[in-house]
Amino acid sequence: MRRLRLDRPVSPGATLARDVTGPGGEIIARAGHALTDRTLQALKGRGVSWCFVNDRWGEGLHVVPLDSGRSTVRPLLRDFNQKVRELVAPLLNMSTQRALEGLRNGRPTAPLARSRFVDDLPSVVRVFIEDCEQADPMGGYLIDRSSGGDEDGHSIGVAAVTSRLATLVGMDARERVTAVCAALLHDAGMVFVPRQVLAIPHSQRSIPERIRYEDHAILGEAMLEPFGGPSLHLSIVAGEHHEAADASGFPRGRKGGHRVLRTAEEKRDLERVTLTSEIIAVADAYERIVSPSPGYSGHSPAAARDILESLAGRTLNREVVHRLLASFPVLPLGTDIRVVRGGYEGMTGVVCAIPPGHQEQPVVRLFLDPAGHPLPTAIEIALADTPDAAIEVLDAAVPDLPMRAKVGER
After folding, report:
1. Residues in Cβ contact with 31 at an 8 Å cutoff, skipping those fewer than 6 apart
2. Whole-angstrom distance, CA of residue 394 vs CA of residue 4
3. Helix 151-168 and helix 275-290: axis angle, to 10°?
4. Helix axes 232-240, 216-224, angle to 10 degrees
5. pLDDT tens-digit profile of 128-184?
6. Residue 172 burial (CB < 10 Å; 0-12/13-18/19+)?
7. Crossing angle, helix 318-326 and helix 151-168, to 10 degrees?
8. What's the pTM value of the predicted model, to 2 decimals?
9. Exposed, middle or buried: residue 216 (CB in 10 Å: 0-12, 13-18, 19+)?
């Protein structure tokens, strides 16, 4: 199984390896369905950019998304968001200032702090974390999200990456549950951003639309404040996940750090972004980079590395980024590549194996000739044994997104 971008060729007889979901999480195509030209066009028409496929060219690969397990996170999150929308409905069309006053004075979300959701969330998250830890990082960290409008899918993807990052930075089991719960609700304030605004690529939004989008952080913080007590981290992360290491973020321009360990003084500094928020900011950026959004189809994990590296130390915590990048190969399994030098120049294929000690010299399976026609038989070459060959990642040449889009804005 491999992840396929729908503008790429697929071998004859290919089938969907996983269900494909739409913006609302609804299933629009079932696993096992033949991936014909007609099916591909239908999926594109529904706004789908990627899908997981079983095909001859990806034979032997087992590239699966992090969030592919048995967890019941999605229905729980969907029910929570529906309830939130009902509780804050009278405030949705107000200005940000008036909505904040309504949230803080009226506390409409307070009933949720005593709901079954709060009781069920930790146990569901523990199962979710177990599932995520079983995913093989050799394919990079992929998310089971196919379309740009799937907001719940985005939050679940961020939570999945957060679960791995929490382990990488040394959090214990309790801290991991805390971080993943916060990641699931980091975008709670998006309920205040009109759907028509979310459907517009960030670079095309008007100034008022951009401001309304940015206000989701402080509105989410106010929405979750009534949870308080042991759930205070939910509100903190909702308000901080768009702050930046260099203090260029929003809503308050707080400064982050570039390390995982904090001194006692740094931990007491209320003007410094918390480590949990910085971890979720990195997970948020990575999920946005590898997943689709309006006007953007998403990058491969291999290409995402360069974008994240460019953000490390500026908008994102440098050490957290580096720990994430060190945890999966430079050229993960399933990466689409083109040979740019040597006897196979111009042919395209996929990374199919990573020999120990040769992360940057994997085994590649070539299946298209320089003209883009399928080869009669796929060719496998080990780059470590083919010194005259060089490859490039196919989507590495995609024009850079605006910087703000790179760090998680649509």
Report:
1. 15, 16, 17, 18, 19
2. 12
3. 130
4. 170
5. 999 999 889 999 999 988 888 888 999 999 999 999 999 999 999 999 999 999 999
6. exposed
7. 90
8. 0.92
9. buried
